[in-house]
Amino acid sequence: MARTLCNNCNFSLSTCICSAVKDVNNHVNVIILQHPSEEKIAKNTAKLLNLSLSGCQIIKGENNNDFDILKSLPLETTVLLYPNEQAINLDDKAQSAELSKITHLIVIDGTWKKAYKILQLTTLLNQFKTISFKQLPKSRYAIRKAPRADSLSTLEAVAHSLFLIEQLNPAPLYNLLDELIQKQTQHMPEHVKARYLA
């Protein structure tokens, strides 16, 4: 039997997180390129960003044909969040002049493997500068296991980026993530919950 979903947040009624949603007015537009397999994952955090941020859109796909929007973004002021060797570190104070010009932030939503696949198939992304961080904030997102120590959820990566680019207060976004974790773990047996939240 299909579970009844909340009309607003699209989570099941028992895990609805609407009470924790706060409107966040961001100046840098966030464009999330989402691997199709992420959409059905209950613990996916991209949709939390879409619920809160005033400037955010999620586009599902895997390649240039799916992400036609990339052709219309301003080249000089759009950046891709991806930790490659050319990436400008947002937390490097010497780059502050560069940060003030950013108008659009592209983020790939998927596992590392799927994100890399999107990067390979979407050559339109090659035209944008990449950004990353020297120091990662500690991930709060314990309910989805990641194979790499430098893994952040999509919400955490975007919240930290907007904090560094436009000094946006990340607390409402982190509170929403905490609510998701609380709701997703509320029915777990204690020994299972302890394994996740240790």
TrEMBL record:
<dbReference type="GO" id="GO:0016432">
    <property type="term" value="F:tRNA-uridine aminocarboxypropyltransferase activity"/>
</dbReference>
<dbReference type="InterPro" id="IPR005636">
    <property type="entry name" value="DTW"/>
</dbReference>
<comment type="similarity">
    <text>Belongs to the TDD superfamily. DTWD2 family.</text>
</comment>
<feature type="domain" description="DTW">
    <location>
        <begin position="2"/>
        <end position="189"/>
    </location>
</feature>
<keyword id="KW-0819">tRNA processing</keyword>
<dbReference type="GO" id="GO:0008033">
    <property type="term" value="P:tRNA processing"/>
</dbReference>
<keyword id="KW-0808">Transferase</keyword>
<dbReference type="Pfam" id="PF03942">
    <property type="entry name" value="DTW"/>
</dbReference>
<dbReference type="InterPro" id="IPR039262">
    <property type="entry name" value="DTWD2/TAPT"/>
</dbReference>
<keyword id="KW-0949">S-adenosyl-L-methionine</keyword>
<protein>
    <recommendedName>
        <fullName>tRNA-uridine aminocarboxypropyltransferase</fullName>
        <ecNumber>2.5.1.25</ecNumber>
    </recommendedName>
</protein>
